[in-house]
Amino acid sequence: MSRPSTDPGPGGWFGFRAPTLGFLYAWAIADLAANVLLVVTGGAVRLTGSGLGCPTWPQCGDGKYTPPLSYHGVIEFGNRMLTWVLVAIAIATWFAVMRYRPVDRVARRLATGVALGVPLQAVIGGITVLTKLNPWVVAFHFLVTMLIISLATWLVHRTRPARSAPPDDGDALIPRDSVIARLGVALAWTVYVLTWVTIYLGTVVTGSGPHSGDENSHRNDLDPAWATQLHSDAVWTLVGTGFALILLTVIARLALRRAALWFGGLLILQGVIGYVQYATGLPILLVILHMLGSALLMIGATVLVLEASRAGRTRDLTPA
């Protein structure tokens, strides 16, 4: 597969030269980072009980677009304002992708999907307010963010400039069409699916727990102990599958072993935070770190399947 040229080329919109690959890559990283930051700030809104700090949407109460002079109102309004920063970054990334030459249609679709996800999330966020923080709507809001993060990770992976490091001879030890290589791909996709299942069940635990976002909002009426046990079972299934993938990639020296090791490290860190927060009564800081860990885990799982399938890489910019 051919790599994209880093030469900006003669084209571009409105007389501007097309951006370099490095410029596009930087905006893709900014787009991903902004979405991860939104996970953290959204978690802070819920964990401080500020979910209804702006009791209406799109206004912030009493028909006004400014926050009430209260602690919760300022926090919720600040999180809403961060959305506009995310909009600006998403639009800038989209323009950079659209102006890049040679044309990368996959990157264009990814950038468009991420950009459209921002207003969609704003609407879903408004629905969460109008439903008084219904836990199932809040969970859906979080899962859509995870989807956007996964797409943004794919965009970063695809626009990554070429590395000048020499190839690893071990990567060629197992042919890509071998049974072992195909097993590695299957395990990587299994890990990705299990990551989604684990994160979803984490939202179910959250919906049954004490951090509702507002003292008057309802919970999902599930037994927190039962929901936590189900989530824990999914975590251990993910750990077992991830460990099997790491063993396979290291022993067979598959090309995706580095991504597998990184994912394994993130998984261990996330598991430790999860158990510590449960044992210590869900302190706010640890819960926020756990939410951040979920976003990082989704990034790691996405990179894992991209490395396994060789899909979405910058090496292939043929029109698709």
TrEMBL record:
Calcium listed as a keyword: no
Keyword Zinc set for record: no
Domain of life: Bacteria
InterPro entries: COX15/CtaA_fam (IPR003780), COX15/CtaA_HemeA_synthase (IPR050450)
Pathway as given in its UniProt record: Porphyrin-containing compound metabolism
Subcellular location: Membrane
Membrane spanning residue stretches: 21-45, 81-98, 110-130, 136-156, 183-202, 234-252, 259-278, 284-306
Main location: membrane
Membrane disposition: Multi-pass membrane protein
Pfam families linked to this entry: COX15-CtaA
UniProt keyword terms in alphabetical order: Cell membrane, Disulfide bond, Heme biosynthesis, Iron, Membrane, Metal-binding, Oxidoreductase, Transmembrane, Transmembrane helix
UniProt name for this protein: COX15/CtaA family protein
Taxonomic source organism: Gordonia caeni
Top-level taxonomy: Bacteria, Bacillati, Actinomycetota, Actinomycetes, Mycobacteriales
